[in-house]
Amino acid sequence: MKNLFYNLLEEIGEDPEREGLKDTPHRVAESYKFLTRGYRQNIDEVLNNAYFEAEDNHMVIVKDIELYSLCEHHMLPFIGKCHIGYIPTDKVIGVSKLARIVDMFARRLQIQERLTNQIANVLMEKVGAQGVGVVIEAQHLCMMMRGVEKQNSKMITSDMQGVFRTQMATRTEFLQLIGTAV
Ligand SMILES: Nc1nc2c(ncn2[C@@H]2O[C@H](COP(=O)(O)OP(=O)(O)OP(=O)(O)O)[C@@H](O)[C@H]2O)c(=O)[nH]1
Ligand SMILES: [Zn+2]
């Protein structure tokens, strides 16, 4: 990657040998490694078996999980918040793991819709939830600093599965608690 960024600097009309850019190919390569580390993570390692017996079947919500990802069309950041709610069947997951799930999928090239769906799938498939709701609100830099140049638009995506899809009251409770008028 270092060589690629060296060449990129030349292609954009810069001098990769000038003082200020000397270490830039290395830094950018390190930065991209971090921003795409989700490709090298495994969901079972991320969850680390942090399951606990569910004592009841009430809704669990973690809202405002900040999120930084890269759109796969322009490789520019999209930045926002993720809200997750689920109803456990027989086990709950350690609360920090919800944020770790978000990061694992966000640190890849993404479209917001797929990111939303991948997070929801983990709760259904790995945690065995009765239902899950995931809402992401994000701003895409590819729409802000280039292209249509809209500074205030937000993309909102939601994925409702299980009882969040079949029971209107459950879905409404979730949306009310996260405070999003979706
Ligand atoms: N659905 C979806 N679209 C996205 C996401 N991130 C970026 N895009 C869009 O991907 C599209 C790519 O469109 P193209 O016409 O191929 O590329 P472009 O000419 O650079 O498009 P503009 O951004 O309109 O200038 C654009 O409309 C982007 O806004 C995302 O997460 N979800
Ligand atoms: Zn984009």
From TrEMBL:
Taxonomic superkingdom: Bacteria
* GO CC terms of this entry: cytoplasm
Write out the pathway annotation from the protein's UniProt entry: Cofactor biosynthesis; 7,8-dihydroneopterin triphosphate biosynthesis; 7,8-dihydroneopterin triphosphate from GTP: step 1/1
Domain GTP cyclohydrolase I residue range list: 2-178
Q: Which SUPFAM superfamilies match?
A: Tetrahydrobiopterin biosynthesis enzymes-like
Keywords for this protein? GTP-binding, Hydrolase, Metal-binding, Nucleotide-binding, One-carbon metabolism, Zinc
Q: Name one GO molecular function term.
A: zinc ion binding
Asked if Hydrolase is a keyword of the record, the answer is yes
Return the broad EC class. hydrolase
**What's the EC number here?**
3.5.4.16
Q: Which GO terms describe its biological process?
A: one-carbon metabolic process; tetrahydrobiopterin biosynthetic process; tetrahydrofolate biosynthetic process
The record ties this protein, via Gene3D superfamilies, to: 1.10.286.10, 3.30.1130.10
Which residues bind Zn(2+) per the record? C71, H74, C142
Q: Which reaction does it catalyse?
A: GTP + H2O = 7,8-dihydroneopterin 3'-triphosphate + formate + H(+)
Summarize the subunit comment: Homopolymer.
HAMAP family on file: FolE (MF_00223)
State the family it belongs to.
Belongs to the GTP cyclohydrolase I family.
- The molecule here is called GTP cyclohydrolase 1
This chain's source organism reads Tichowtungia aerotolerans
Q: Source gene?
A: folE
